[in-house]
Amino acid sequence: SGESGAGKTESAKLLLQHIMNLCKGNSQLEQQILQVNPLLEAFGNAQTVMNDNSSRFGKYIQLRFQKNTVQGAKLSEYLLEKSRVVQQDSGERNFHIFYYMFAGLSSEEKEMYGLLDPSLYRYISGRFGTQDVAQHWKHKYQEVCNALDMVGFKEQEQVDMQAILAGVLSLGNVTFEPEESNGSVKVSEASQGWLKAAAVSHRKVLLEVVVPSPLLSPSVSCCCFLCADARDSIAKMVYGRVFGWIVCKINELLAEDVDPEVELREIGILDIFGFENFAVNRFEQLCINLANEQLQHFFNHHIFQLEQAAYREEGLPWETITFNNNEPILNLLLAKPLGLLSLLDEQSAFPQ
């Protein structure tokens, strides 16, 4: 637990390495567990104001043991900060993979995916980097490709994945304007090329999703806003599905090959996303901060309350340690039925 940049991800990686070393980590499986990190960081980490390589998702790694050797592992991912795909605050970047692609793809590959100059794309805020930074990203792109091969992505799957990511970037540049003849909304003439690049062969289907029926929209200006919102929602959903696809592939690779009747021992490592306080804190950041508060409460309860109760019970000479109890904060958000999240759930269930 801790704020962004405190060292949680690096500590988790060192802990994994240490466990593998204690297991005499020479097996292929143990090496693969260590090698999936570059892939997860490329798609799940980003530069924030506080940290150049900030985890924007939570991951829980379950290592399963038999006779002191790792027989399998499972990765669970939580709460990927998908809002970052479509919007970043000042001084921040989108997920690393977009920049790695621009730096690592050849000119021919960029042409194949329809990628233009990075400064043109709204979803990466027109910011790229210096030549030295681009060289570092190029190296990172190669690491990602190697990790994709190792995890078991076929060549065509890797091509499809990068086409999807390029499509997400193109989708961000699609804009909308009023249709003068009937008062509805259409994709602006200036962004027809971006729509074509984003949709590939499914332009009609994409249009049906992002441009609502004029009968459902109270005004043209509201309809333009709804279209932009639908466009961003699709981009976030698609990126989330790509990330989930990667995690599924990793779990297929790391699944244990043992007798199902044998009970395995397990070590679980939770690498949580960092606490941050931005100028504008969005819903994902609220959930991230709340998860950290819950972990802090868990530690407080075990370290301060249960431990000290055990010392008192055993009659040990002990000076009571006081601590800040954050339970009121958790109750404000999580209590049922009147916590903020319960009230939001209730309101969300109402029609319209």
Automatic annotation (TrEMBL):
ATP binds at residues 2-9. GO terms for cellular component: cell projection; myosin complex. SUPFAM superfamilies: P-loop containing nucleoside triphosphate hydrolases (SSF52540). It holds the Pfam family Myosin_head. PROSITE patterns: MYOSIN_MOTOR. GO terms for biological process: regulation of actin filament length. GO terms for molecular function: actin binding; ATP binding; microfilament motor activity; protein serine/threonine kinase activity. It is found in: Cell projection; Cytoplasm, Cytoskeleton. Keywords: Actin-binding, ATP-binding, Cell projection, Cytoplasm, Cytoskeleton, Motor protein, Myosin, Nucleotide-binding, Repeat. Belongs to the TRAFAC class myosin-kinesin ATPase superfamily. Myosin family. This is MYO3B protein. It comes from Pitta sordida. The lineage of its organism: Eukaryota, Metazoa, Chordata, Craniata, Vertebrata. The gene is Myo3b_1.
